Queue: 2 jobs
Job 1
Amino acid sequence: MSLKHKNLLSLAPLSVEDIQLILETADSFKEVSGREIKKVPALRGRTVVNLFFEPSTRTRTSFELAAKRLSADVINFSPSSSSVVKGETLLDTARNIEAMQADIIVLRHSSAGAAETLARGVKSSVINAGDGWHEHPTQALLDLYTIRERGMAFKGLRVAIVGDVAHSRVARSNILALTKLGAEVRVVGPPTMIPLGIEKMGVRVFHHLDEGLRDVQVIMMLRLQLERQGRALFPTIREYARLYGLTSERVKMADPKAIVMHPGPINRGVEIAPEVADSLSSVILDQVANGVAVRMGVLYLMSGAN
Amino acid sequence: MNREQERLIMDAGDIARALTRVAHEILERNKGVKDLALVGIRTGGVHLAHRLAKRIQEIEQAPVPIGDLDITLYRDDLSLRKEQPVLRTTSVPFDISDKIVVLVDDVLFTGRTIRAAMDGLMDLGRPAEIQLAVLVDRGHRQLPIKANYIGKNLPTSREEQVQVLLEEAGEDDRVVILKA
């Protein structure tokens, strides 16, 4: 059993077996991350380029740490977003990077489909680290890993994804992954933040948070992109927090053993109350720790010789 | 697997007697179980390490710490392979520093696995000593590596395949040569 994909652009083409393989591979790297010497020689001589057109600390650091713990050489390339004029420039940048003999390019870009475009234009493997509102596959994989680590089975698992689903690549990747694994996924948010026709992805839509949370085992909060305020998605942050903020009262609607997840960075007091973020049911910091192990797994599996 | 193409080298009794002897040799050389630890190399060595640990415990009436080592990440051919091999987890639930670690594997062949295992072990701590126990030494070394404890020396040709089949993996205990 091995990963037959050259690129990781989306969760859509991955089979259930592919996902299981990635999660099991991450188990081995979780053990490595717990060692005193957190480094293995598996990717010695390989070059990983983090190409980030959008600011990101968490994801870039996580990929960087993952690559370094595998003994790969890492280059961080962050062209200022103002100089980016879509396709042409992206490919030009990519050609420069290829000339440096990169084996794997990790791309973050504000345009949906950028990773796909890049993958077609270069010989290196491409990992999508977030493209516009489209997908963020490694985030979904680390979320799956965190759920599985808590001993929860995916089949029949009740998951609520709460917030601005329409503009969330995290939500899209998670919906694809979770429904594939047989989970029962709900999306919860105001009508302006739930795309029309999302039921076709196999999810149920709730506009009322208390109803959406009823008996769920996993609560996945999305970050409210505050920069979107004023675009008529919601009247005020206060109103959003009142209607869709996760408080400890509302957590009680869910299964008593439910876990609370958030891809970060969190807006305390907006989508999530501080006491919930810091509660025992919160696995937010586990997600960060698992992110490194899962990304090590993905880098390892994609590092086969071309 | 087609049994007709197998040549039987050791049966269950042979394996049991060899392991008993190796357990005694380990204890004799190290004067008991003080600071001793066994680490089996996945997957064949893991079962054998557990069997040795059981014998050592019976002889000395004292437990010996035991771990499993997956050497995949330390292989010397990772950058040459098209698809990466499946990883298994390493589980060495004790500090190996200052311990006498006996690596256990089923078949000693080129020595490349043992090189990888020693590198893997060194990343977990600084053992006082590393020793090597194998059930079968079939020769054809490509690295300067030698076992301290050998169940059976087995002259082979390079093309032949030696397999250690064990109950723990759902087989009848035996060591066979598969005809090429």
Job 2
Amino acid sequence: MIASSRSPLIWFVHLSVILLVLLWTLPTAGLLISSLRDKDQLAVSGWWTALSTSTQNLVFRAPGADAQVEKDGKFVISGNLLEGQSGEVSAFGFNSREPTAYTPGETAEMNDGERLTVQADGAFEITSDKAMEGSRGQRIFYTAAVPPRFTFDNYREVMRAEGIGASFINSLTVAIPATIIPILVAAFAAYALAWMKFPGRAILVAVVVGLLVVPLQMSLIPLLKLYNGVGAFFGVPAKTYVGIWLAHMGFGLPLAIYLLRNYMAGLPREIMESARVDGASDFDIFVKIILPLSFPALASFSIFQFLWTWNDLLVAMVFLGTGKNELVLTGRLVNLLGSRGGNWEILTASAFVTIIVPLIVFFTLQRYLVRGLLAGSVKGG
Amino acid sequence: MQQLLFAIATMAAGVLACAAYFFGTNWVLDKLFPSKGLTGPVTSRNLRITNAVRPWLFLGPALFSLTIYLIYPVIESVWLSLHDKSGENFVGLGNFIWMFNDGEFRQSIYNNFLWLLVVPAAATFFGLVIAALTDRIWWGNIAKTLIFMPMAISFVGASVIWKFIYDYRAEGTEQIGLLNAIVVAFGGTPEAWVTLPFWNNFFLMVILIWIQTGFAMVILSAALRGIPEETVEAAVIDGANGFQIFFKIMIPQIWGTIAVVWTTITILVLKVFDIVLAMTNGQWQSQVLANLMFDWMFRGGGDFGRGAAIAVVIMLLVIPIMIWNIRNAAKEMESH
């Protein structure tokens, strides 16, 4: 390693890593950029062109006859095609068959004696010798070079109209308790498995290790039946937040116990023995000594569990309802994929709202995440 | 807002109840069998009793939920897989016989094996390469963070990200999906990638590889750093080149870790569900076991027998890895 870092090969290494990093970040970058683009631009051009001016074929409907004003004996309707935004019109027309018949500055003679003039900056004027009639305005077709336009409109839209805002709260409601409760339960169990002497301890550890890999699919049907049974027996709904918290706890416990037990077993025995000599019970030792010392392992697990419960789709689909007050973000996103499959401004913004919380957790607490991964895998091997 | 308050209240109640259990049972135990500050035969008997009971108080809630949520369901699933859709009439191996004659199931098994062949291998390979490369450059840690990032993204979120990349517009119009734009730029014709039977499997696999490479990289990177310097130095003195050092000196020393990464991703692949559901929902011959199982849970009012039978198949595929894990853990406990 030391020798090769001096060789010209190092440029090859730099280049390949840059390439790999691009491959791994561009998909997410594309999503973020797209979610911030104007939806008309997003629909017709790739996100990698987001910073360049795009040429679009657009339609504008001029105001109706009640907007006309009389000027020098002529009746005039005027306005701006671009509605105040910057851009440049390169062609226009009044007929959908010939949307680019005229160049800016020219005057188009329309069928009923009206004349249409459009300037390059988008200003238009419809003039007529006699008063115009009809409440529906003239359609104006035009081709314009529109500069890049970025907006938060997509986010506003999904947070309100598409129910992402409500689902965001639902996801929090699921994830936070489903993270905290298992930690407490697992920590006590891990201490017992690491430091207390009782018959059957080795078997219990083996059982926990075995349960680590039991597929979730095995649990779904029996638990669904159980939940329905319990719900019917007590006359309460079968799909509740309490139900999903307990389910997430059950599924997360093997990893939690395993990680915490490994960590606690590595703590020095002398600390516990000296405390015991001083007359402390196991309970005191656990609460006052072990728990504070285990903070790194507790942090690692809570990050895992939070990411897992926030990102989970399967458990939520089976054990939680699909009403407005229950549907979590991942479930909402799957629904949108079905119902708004082509509306990329909706999908990209929704997806970004879904992944922003895990990303924040990831970037701020990455150290603990890595430590937990290493403890969970390398030691386990 | 009201819901948030409710959530916070229930959360507090849940945590408090949990804490109250642990503190309460211990307090009761110490009151029933006092031993603190006392001496004599009764005290030592009390001490013995509390020491025997307390582990089970600590383990109680964990054992209870492990039993309810994992152990009981495994048994119940096996039992249900031998019964019909209502779960009441015994049908013997009927569900399994149906399964092996069902085209969709065979398709799922075939696809699952494709996934098992490709995803763990590719993720481990990329993870190893990236770990080895980033160790040599000064901005390696930044690169690693960025490649590790997809790990935090949900499978559904990742599916949307990649669906956008695979997006298809009719030939002649401007492509807004990156993949088709590249294909068109090189003079090819655009394709609706996820609808191409057989090949669409690989387009879905890319998503999981993209997510899991970071995991493999982090673990393999730590393993590479744990290799004793002397072995590498000795190889350098003997005149080995970079590739020889990597393949003949370093890789053999981290075989154990590679195996762990491989099996961990293998288990994940067997359970892959969200990606297929979000991308194709099993259409265009891309079905996999976990999604098929979910399908049968609700299809036609829900067929619990067939669903459970598919779950049992997934479980059977996992069991070899489970045994291997338990053996390793037992070995480690002995060496402690």
